[in-house]
Every structure is written in C-alpha cells, then in structure tokens.
Amino acid sequence: MLWSHATGSLTLDRPRVVGIVNVTPDSFSDGGLFRNVDDARRQMDRLVEEGTDVLDIGGESTRPQGASEVSADEELARVLPVIRAAIADHPGMPVSVDTTKAFVARAALDAGASIVNDVSGFRLDAEMPGVCAGARAGVVLMHSRGGVTDMATFAHATYESDVVAAVIAELEPSVVKAKEAGIERDCLVLDPGIGFSKRGEHSLAVLAGMKRLAALGFPVLVGVSRKRFVGEVTGTAIATERVWGTVGANVTALVGGARLFRVHDVRPNRHALDVAWAIITKAT
Q1: Which residues are catalytically annotated?
Q2: What is the spatial distance between Cα 1 and Cα 210, in angstroms, rounded to a whole number?
Q3: Which domain holds residue 12?
C-alpha cells in the first residue's frame, strides 16, 4: 500500500510514525513548549533522530478541556515558520499541516508541505477538498463531531451499540467529498478519531474493531498518544506519563491493520511497532 502526497509518496509496507509538533499555547499535554521556532526546530530534530516518518505541525488546539478557536491568520503565523524550518532542516521528510482551514492548508502546501491532516474530515471548510486536490496533497480524514471548541469533549459522545459502524458511516461523506473534488484514492488516509467525541469505552471499542476500518481499503492512522482513555485504563492522570499505555494501544492497532501512528513520543513507539511488525511478518 502506498500513500501519495504532494511531494512524493510513503510506502506502507511497515508501520509508519507521524511525529507531533504542536506550536500552540494550549494543547492538552505539551501546550506552549514549542511556540518559538528554535524550540520547534529542536523538537523536530529529536523526532527525526528517534525515527519519525512524517512531521505533523499544528497551530490550533482541539484539547478535551475545551479549546478556543484561533483566526486563520494567527494559525498561519504559528505554523508557517515551523513548516519552512522543517523543510529546510529535513529535506525529503514529508511535512503535514494539522488544520481544518483551507486558507491555512493552501499556504502550508504552497510552502512545501505534503499532507493535510483535517481533524474535521472536510466538515468545517467547504473549500478544503479543492485545495487538497489542487496540490495533490496527501489527506488524513478524521472522524469527529462538532466544531474545534468541542469535538474533543463528550458533548457529542452519544452512540448506539455499534460505535465502529457509526464511525464508518460518518466518514463516508468525507470520502465522497474527497472523490468529488478529484482527490485520488491513493492520497487518502482514514483516522477513526480516537478520543474525539468519544468516551473511553467508545475509543476502546473502535480500537477493538480496527480490522473493520482497515477492511475499507484505505490506510488507517490512529492517534492514541497520551489520550484520556489511556489514563482511565492505567490510572495515570498526567498526560506525559501515558507513554507505555500509548505503546500498548498502538501495537494492538497495528495487529488490527492500522499502519500510521501519530505520537508525541517517537522512540518507544518506533521500537515497539518495529518489533511487533517483525513478529507479525514472521508469522505470516
């Protein structure tokens, strides 16, 4: 399986790690740590050294405590210098912009970004599919409900008995919008939105049903890193101490068919996924 993007392609013949670079003051576990470009540069150097395959740069938080929207101009001022630094410092490394705004996505792609990671799955900005199609960007379509301020809360976390079926059904319109805009199938990745509009039991059910998501035929990305449900299972209140629970969830998702893993802590996840993959491929 291949993930095509604006500057090339990424083979998915092994697990791939997407390293998180939050240039926001209020992200749930690392807000404010990398707002300065030099700090972000050092963080990206670390992620690359630890084995990331993609750098994912975001300038607007969707934290579960209730996020605040930022203007497109402010978001762009946060992410664009860091995107340019990533491309200059790590040529050949695909750079993803984590945004729901077409204005931000267009400028990021013009600056050399390869991928648009839209946590709204094309729900919040009607111009986003056309922007992505025009640049032949790689696209992550994530399942969520509501807007930026409440999509990571429990405000919309109501499901019937089959959470996986609901996620699949609600991602379908996003895929349709992508196809109608002319985005090629090999540019698309689906993300079930772990922790977004989902209580802990919902996130666990989605991870348990990963094979059903993978059966749709698109590469699947999971973002479980330091999430609230990990803390609920492990009794770990501090987000930065949820690394090993994150690793466990990612390895399970890999077995279920996920191939992309968005994380804050690259090295432990990289090592665990590589060892798990060696075992999986040996068994087959």
Answers
A1: 227, 262
A2: 17
A3: 2-283
